[in-house]
Design a protein that fits this description.
The complex is a heterotrimer, with 1 copy of chain A and 2 copies of chain B.
Chain A: H1 5-8, H2 18-27, H3 45-53
Helix pairs in contact in A: 2-3
Chain B: E1 5-15, H1 21-30, E2 35-39, H2 45-50, H3 52-69, E3 76-77, E4 81-82, H4 84-108, E5 112-115, E6 117-122, E7 125-129, E8 137-147, E9 151-153, E10 165-166, H5 168-171, E11 180-184, H6 188-199, E12 203-208, H7 219-231, E13 235-238, E14 241-248, E15 251-257, E16 263-268, E17 270-273, E18 277-279, E19 312-314, H8 325-339, E20 353-355, E21 360-365, H9 368-373, E22 378-384, H10 389-393, E23 400-406, E24 412-419, H11 422-435, H12 439-443, H13 453-463
The chains are: A mainly alpha, B alpha/beta.
Bound molecules: flavin-adenine dinucleotide (FAD) (2 copies).
The site of one flavin-adenine dinucleotide (FAD) has 37 residues of chain C, from β2, α2, α3, β6 and α8.
Chain lengths: 65, 473, 473
């Protein structure tokens, strides 16, 4: 995965509302790779859409442990 | 009357109508999926018939009686008597209302209900043997199957004989309070029932192999509950394994052994064995599907609740820990959505868990240790219930609310609550965790006075060094 | 001993140690502001001494006794007796614990405490007359002042005489339950106390000018509480104004009149008048500050709690509706932060409110009508408590949870709850509103089973047309 993905996936967690996580799945975006612009780095729906438009990494691409 | 073998087809076959199965079936039907739900026993599964609901009904009765009997401090004098047969009948009414409701909701949503035991005949076909003589059987061909067959009490070290050694199921159907109850296992079911029976007047002894009550919880959490149980007269025997029991003229004699093999004898009138639950995978001929279980007996699934077979899903107790009704339902919804073609997944960040002891325990997300292990540098905030105005007016000021957050971003990571209504209070933290809320978000939310939920706010403020009703550390 | 007039200086002078004043003082001191708190009567103000806390203590005692006396359905037989003098003593202990705690917390945080009545002498100076003979007085010069003098019961139509006509304060200090209690006013204080005294065995009549109980709430919300009160034996007289009362050989005779002037006589042993509360602005010589009150008697403030004077703030009941303790505290925190130089403001989106009747009511944010008025096209979701497993196991399945959201964006806008523990359940919705959560966010949060909070989730799912435990409309 992209290295900036690790910022939002700290501690194995992505901080994003369920609605944003669902949107990511719908748009085929791996939310763990989306840089968050919300408070503390939270991933917003807008971030997910932006990632989708810029051809973000497709969902299902697991980040290796 | 259907006699002999008829054959029908369905998009989604659901096996088991517990909170995993019936929720999945209703959700799938709502999404337009042709759904058939097979249940061998009673709608609502363990949860409604012999688990969550019956236990909470007894707890209410025990609390009502015990609460009034111990309220002299607040000027209430009462000497309540409990008629357990009536309590049981009331519990049965509650259960019937709810199981009847489940059946009605399934029908109203268009779920095809089939009563009987489902056994897979092939990868796409199941046979349902109807109950009772001459009821015949039925074959159902399916596109997708969802296995939600739940779990059953572990029958070890003792077998259940329905008379001297009971499982929780048996204990929740008693018509009288035993004089001396020996409980094997201090997990959540053992502790809920020990507390309940102690309040109802039984002499309760709890035998637990490990060295604490509710060993799944942090020490300072479980300690509050153990102390309260001890105050109710519950005697704990930690580090003892139940070995054998026998009848004597004066009741049962139970022998336990510690790790050095040192034996102790306990007298009892009844044994409640609550040492855990095993997934049920032996009722539906899994072999015909070619599915295998893991070393713990669970059916492995992915985050869409899919098994090793693309068209077969499994949810609830049979699909792994935590074995909780709401986890079963949450998975059931996901599986139904996936079958309906939605991009659903079990991506909830946390599954709360509650123990309905006195006081209640509820937790969600990470403990401080777990947060550290996960790579966070956690900050912790705590509010003792004895500083809560609401807890004092409830005459129930023990326990605390604790919150765990990431030190850097202040994202809420978890909460541990041991307090009255803990099971309700945890809902706010669960939402905070799912939303990616920061401590400040919870602290800035105005909380109603006087409520226990204010303690949640205070714990959060404490984590930020700005608690008003406790000293900040 | 201080005799005569001494003079000190302080950064922030706080007048009144209720939940507005003491929270502001502690918060300011924590921020390093030199803070002096003046209280004429008792730490904790109305809330701790004669409001929220005492009322909730009596409610607990009444519920404990009444609950046990009415639990035959669940097999509990009891005939409790309530010793009101003891109940009162217990209430006093609770109050003392909490007021003592407030005093300790103030000291521990470095707040200077001054006991006495504060009267402004000039724009920067206050005189505090100490209580008691020969205690002298004290002048304090201040940079900033915060007025948190609260409110008092409206003495109309009747004067309070402390014997026949009591305010809530008097009712919360009774040593015996009156046989026949006439309550004037069916607002939240009147309804909480009517319910409590009815449970304690009084014959309660409620006289209300308007045509419903709790007229500030939607009809279907208040109806649940009125019905329950009626089932407890409370008699409602709507559309009647209390006109006069007199003593007779057999008790009090109270005369009411309807809008046509038609009079009715009611017999009673005691009158509790709870028709509202007036802001307290006449105790501190506001004139010396040159501050004026608005037509309702409140001190006008902006969103930083600042009055017309740049260096004077006002919070809590004296600063306007809603007159609630948590609103006072929330404002107190903001004012303290502003004085400390923080960019704070009262920008919370919603202030929850609870009524501790049977069942409880709690609301937060907008009703559907309010949402429509505000320009939203609201969607509404509802879950009746009789479909809640937890409510059934509590033998308390009346009421409902309702959620209001924007139809377009699904942002949560409000919730109306009438249900057991409504006051606790509302916390989750308050957080949802503050976070800008969408219905989906709440629906996707796993809720513990079996809890009342599941009803909140179901209401939210119902609003989305995907409820499992009710039929979607
Ligand atoms: C005493 C007790 C208290 C509990 N308290 C709580 C609590 O407070 N909160 C909580 O979250 N959880 C609680 N639990 C756990 C909870 O009951 C389970 O987690 C939950 O019931 C699991 O749901 P499920 O749908 O996976 O399975 P189950 O509820 O076990 O349902 C499985 C169903 O499948 C049926 N079945 C099995 N095989 C077949 C077959 N071949 N054909 C047709 N039907 C079949 C069974 O008859 C059963 O009805 C408690 C459990 C117990 C025992
Ligand atoms: C019966 C009852 C039940 C209630 N229940 C609830 C409830 O459940 N939840 C809720 O949110 N609210 C409840 N309230 C309302 C709540 O009590 C008030 O909203 C809250 O106390 C307001 O806080 P405050 O700090 O503004 O003022 P107060 O609490 O009224 O405190 C004002 C303080 O200022 C002092 N003071 C006044 N003048 C001077 C002076 N010149 N010098 C020095 N000191 C002075 C007074 O002695 C008093 O201590 C209830 C009220 C009543 C009466």
């Amino acid at each position: 995965g992209e290295s900036d993905g690790e910022v939002s996936a700290k501690g194995g967690r992505v901080f994003a509302a369920p609605s944003a996580r669902r949107l990511a799945r719908e748009l085929g975006v791996d939310i763990e790779t989306v840089p968050g612009s919300g408070p503390g780095g939270r991933v917003t729906e807008g971030d997910v859409r932006a990632a989708a438009e810029s051809g973000g990494e497709p969902a299902g691409t697991e980040t290796a442990d | 009357m259907v006699v002999g073998d008829i054959s029908t087809g369905t998009d989604l076959l659901v096996v088991g109508a517990g909170p995993g199965g019936y929720v999945a079936a209703i959700r799938a039907a709502q999404q337009g999926v042709d759904t058939t739900l097979v249940e061998a026993d009673a709608y609502g599964g363990t949860c409604l018939n012999e688990g969550c609901i019956p236990s909470k009904a007894y707890i209410t009765a025990a609390d009502t009686a015990h609460g009034a009997a111990n309220a002299e401090a607040m000027g209430v004098h009462a000497d309540p008597a409990v008629d357990m047969a009536r309590t049981r009948a009331w519990k049965d009414e509650v259960v019937d209302t709810l199981t009847g409701g489940v059946e009605k909701l399934c029908k109203a949503n268009g779920v095809n209900l089939v009563e009987g035991r489902a056994e897979f005949a092939s990868e796409r076909k199941v046979r349902v043997a109807h109950q009772g003589e001459g009821q015949g059987s039925e074959s159902v061909e399916f596109e997708h199957a969802l296995i939600a067959t739940g779990s059953r009490p572990v029958a070890a070290p003792f077998d259940f004989d329905g008379e001297h050694v009971l499982s929780s199921t048996g204990a929740l159907a008693l018509d009288a309070v035993p004089d001396r109850l020996l409980v094997v296992g201090a997990g959540y079911i053992g502790m809920e029932l020990s507390t309940t029976f102690a309040k109802l007047g039984a002499d309760v002894t709890v035998v637990e192999l490990l060295d604490s009550a509710l060993p799944a919880y942090e020490d300072d959490v479980s300690r509050v509950v153990r102390k309260r149980a001890e105050a109710l007269g519950v005697e704990f025997r930690f580090g003892e394994a139940a070995e054998s029991w026998q009848e004597t003229p004066t009741g049962l004699r139970v022998v336990t052994a510690d790790e050095d093999g040192e034996e102790t004898e306990h007298a009892a009138d009844l044994i409640l064995q609550a040492v855990g639950r095993d997934p049920v995978t032996d009722t539906m001929n899994l072999e015909a599907l070619g599915l295998e279980t893991d070393e713990d007996g669970f059916i492995p699934t992915d985050d869409q609740c899919r098994t090793a077979l693309d068209h077969v899903f499994a949810v609830g107790d049979v699909a792994g820990e935590p074995m909780l009704a709401h986890k079963a339902s949450a998975e059931g919804e996901v599986a139904a959505d996936v079958v309906a073609g939605e991009p659903a997944a079990c991506d909830y960040q946390a599954i709360p868990a509650a123990v309905f002891t006195d006081p209640e325990i509820a937790t969600v997300g990470m403990t401080a240790d777990e947060a550290t292990e996960a790579g966070f540098e956690p900050v912790v905030g705590q509010m003792p219930m004895n500083a809560s105005g609401r807890a004092l007016t409830l005459d129930d000021p023990e326990g605390f609310v604790r919150v765990v957050a990431d030190g850097e971003t202040e994202f809420v990571l978890g909460a541990q609550i041991v307090a009255p209504e803990a099971s309700e209070l945890v809902a706010e933290f669960a939402l905070a965790i799912e939303m990616g809320a920061q401590l400040e978000d919870v602290a800035s939310t105005v909380h109603t006075h006087p409520t226990l939920a204010e303690a949640s706010m205070e714990a959060v403020m404490n984590a930020r060094g700005e608690a008003v009703h406790t000293l900040n550390r």
